[in-house]
# Entry
Amino acid sequence: QVQLVESGGGLVQAGGSLRLSCAASGRTFSSNAMGWFRQPPGKEREFVATISWSGKSTYYADSVQGRFTISRDNAKNTVYLQMNSLKPEDTAVYYCAASRTQHTSVMAYNYNYWGQGTQVTVSS
# Structure
């Protein structure tokens, strides 16, 4: 059974940092792009960051550019999201997803495996 399991969420003050991890099991995703999405309370799910299969290409939403960093360790079948300078508007459930292809994508429909999500709450 293929699973993506996120961890590392929690409560943090504005300006603080968190590092999310997404561990995959059941198959390897070393040939697939990976992404992070989030769903703020009462809002639609939105794209956050994506990374290509090799890790050489990344892309970020404007709202997190310069503050968040996506990375991956294919040997560990794990992708990370380092979040710095957090703001209250970053409060959301964060989801890890595996793409159907090798290439980065901001579109949720390109991702066919999803984790259960981890809550990130940023207090002001």
User: Anything to note?
Assistant: Residues 13 and 90 are 11 Å apart (CA to CA). The chain has a mean pLDDT of 97.
